[in-house]
Design brief:
- The chain contains no helices and nine strands.
- By secondary structure, it is mainly β.
- It has a single domain, classed as Jelly Rolls (Sandwich).
- Strands 1, 2, 3, 4, 5, 6, 7, 8 and 9 form a nine-stranded mixed β-sheet that branches.
- A hairpin with a 2-residue loop joins strand 2 and strand 3.
- The protein is globular and about 40 Å long.
């Protein structure tokens, strides 16, 4: 699995269609940064069918919304099947993992308030 990340932000004060910011790449997870600040970031990612992100734990709450396709998300021992338009908050300090049973794109927002417990 390749994981391509573009750390440059999108151009400010310019309209865009979120689902068209990033394309699917064969056998890859691709990410594009929309906004990256010390207080948090917004990223759009595409997953080719069969790809997954390794299980991880974030110190911050993360909001994800599916903007194309459908995704399987595991949070601790719970499995969620997310479809187009679905959003969910992944709580801070929980194990989570994404699986692409089909292609999907998601928008992820992390806000680092500094007051996390």
């Amino acid at each position: 699995m390749k994981n391509n990340a573009d750390s440059t932000e999108l151009e400010k004060a310019k309209s865009h269609i979120i689902v068209e910011i990033i394309e699917y790449m064969p056998n890859a997870v691709v990410s594009k940064t929309i906004i990256k600040k010390s207080t948090g970031n917004i990223t759009v990612s595409s997953f080719d069918a069969g790809e997954e992100l390794a299980e991880k734990i974030s110190p911050f709450d993360t909001y994800v919304q599916i903007i194309d396709g459908a995704a399987e998300l595991n949070i601790d021992d719970n499995r969620y099947m997310l479809k187009l338009g679905d959003g969910i908050i992944i709580p801070a300090h929980t194990k989570h993992k994404f699986n692409a049973n089909e292609q999907f794109k998601m928008l992820a927002t992390i806000i680092k308030s500094g007051y996390e417990e």
